[in-house]
Amino acid sequence: MNQPPAIQVSRLTYHYGRRRALDDLSLSVAQGEIFAFLGPNGGGKTTLFRLLSTLIPLQQGEVQILSHDLRCASDAVRSLIGVVFQAPSLDKKLSVAENLRHQGHLYGLSGDNLRVRSAHMLDRLGLADRSRDRVETLSGGLRRRVELAKGMLHSPRLLLLDEPSTGLDPAARSDLWNYLRSVRDQQGVTVVLTTHLLEEAEKADRIAILHEGQRVALDTPDALRATVGGDSITIQTAEPARLAADIAERFNVEPLVLDGSVRLEQAAGHEWIVRLVEAFPQQIESVTLGKPTLEDVFIARTGHRFWQEPSPDALPSGTR
Amino acid sequence: MAQLAIENARTAAAAPAIAPRPWLAAASLTQREWVRFIRQRNRVVGAIGQPIIFWLLFGAGLGPTFRLGVDGAAGMSYREYFFPGSLILILLFTAIFATISVIEDRREGFLQSVLVAPIPRWSMVLGKVVGGSMIAIVEGLLFLALGLTLGIQFSVPMLLAIVLLLALISLALTSLGFLIAWRMDSTQGFHAIMSVFLMPMWLLSGAFFPPPPMEPGMSWISWGLSLAMQLNPLTYGVAALRRLLYLNVADAQLPLDTPQLATCWIVTLVFAAVMFLMACKIADQRTTGDML
């Protein structure tokens, strides 16, 4: 197994004007992996996606995709990658089959080859009976499937997806992941996706967590969780800063104050709860104990909550 | 069938890369323009309806006061004079509608998958402007049939020359529209440009009125107007069309300083080539502005 990596990123930096979106990022994705870039919005993953998909040119640093230099061989790279954008890329006035035909032509496919591939993709994604329908008449979930069919039509070796679960219901998400696993298993396609959903990143083989343009973690989900010191204890209190200081003084530990609650990571968390509640019976309103999640990994590496603002998508920490 | 497809897919996956076919891509994008045009019928009405109304109304309204030439004895009616200008207006409107769709393609997202496809950018520009130009030519020819009411006698060589001329002018106008629309994020912005730039360009092309004759003692306004009209490349397209149309009409005397046919062809060809190359050049620059 001496295959070159699917993606090799070295010292990648990217600026929008004065704002730095990617900061000296290096990593490598092996062929046949399902790899997720996880991060909050603004963490740099969309910029990275645009660079990898050749939408925007490199500024500083090097990227190799399947041994091709992104800087000089972007046409070679383009024919090897399939791209599924977060924003829709279908022509709504055209039918599903027409969209695929134009896509095929853009990738140099034509004639019987194109027809057979289109039929195969439509069949595989359960779109065969909708192929003559205009895209504007399809539901959001079906449109995402057409996007996938478009991205995979020319049998790319690397499939890039930007926030692929956006707008999908749980059943459709599950279908998407089944499909991604099957193209990886059957065709050896490397799958690289960006996501801001912790539970989606859990499904990947490996995860890179991006924060403020930097890689703060890179490993399998299990290994990442194992790096967090133990259980996480979240304490609700009226005066979090004061309680954190008191806990620090009394037990010689380093609690964090996050969004009005105090957070502590310790092995054998259940014993700590007893200690804490006995020590500060007046100040503690409630305590929750949780096993480490990817959010805990994120907090441990950055000192921030994954979500700076409350969001309906966020997993409440420490409740699992 | 499915088995075959999987085999095909596997062989393709093993192959190093798919050869890019820019001409195929351009032809495909041209065809897409057609299909979209046919499916949005209001575009047909918009592009051809307004010039016909203009032609009829202005022809009727300005006809009585319009005089060509100094003595006013010979010359053409205003309906005859305005006819080629109206046809050019149809090309202009169609070009505008065609290139506004670049803004829609970008906003609706279709463009992003074209931008990451393994094709050179000129192929995308070619597909877009040829698609728009073909639509413009067809609409122009429909309008041309109204010329029968003016007693214009069409011959095959003349029609071929007209089609070629319309193709060049359309290519120039769609490329110009592309150039303007490429970096725009809203169709409103394009409408503003259309009012202050594209419509005046048409008005100053001799389509609507002939340039004031250059003569001693003319006012500086007339002099400026005349100069602007001589510098406007579209003037030569209108003049060429006028010359081709009235080649065989003996009593339709042209305005005195209509440029010679050869000059008109050369200027129009250069206009189209320069606009197309500029459109390719601007589309070739990858910037962060490629996404919205």
Strand and helix layout:
The complex is a heterodimer of chains A (320) and B (292).
Chain A: E1 7-16, E2 19-29, E3 34-38, H1 45-52, E4 60-65, E5 68-69, H2 74-80, E6 81-84, H3 96-106, H4 111-124, H5 140-152, E7 158-162, H6 170-187, E8 190-195, H7 198-201, E9 206-211, E10 214-219, H8 221-227, E11 231-237, H9 240-251, E12 256-258, E13 261-266, H10 269-279, E14 284-290, H11 294-302
Helix pairs in contact in A: 3-4
Chain B: H1 2-14, H2 22-39, H3 41-62, H4 78-108, H5 110-115, H6 121-144, H7 156-181, H8 187-203, H9 220-231, H10 233-245, H11 261-284
Helix pairs in contact in B: 2-6, 3-4, 4-6, 4-7, 4-8, 4-10, 6-7, 6-11, 7-10, 7-11, 10-11
- Alpha-beta classification of chain B: mainly alpha
Overall 3D geometry of chain A? elongated
Low-confidence stretches of chain A: 309-320
* Poorly predicted residue ranges of chain B: 1-17
Distance between the termini of chain B: 41 Å
Main sheet strand line-up of chain A: 6-7-8-3-9-10
List keywords for this structure.
heterodimer; A: 320 residues; alpha/beta; six-stranded mixed β-sheet; four-stranded antiparallel β-sheet; 11 helices; 14 strands; 36% helix; elongated; disordered C terminus; B: 292 residues; mainly alpha; globular; disordered N terminus
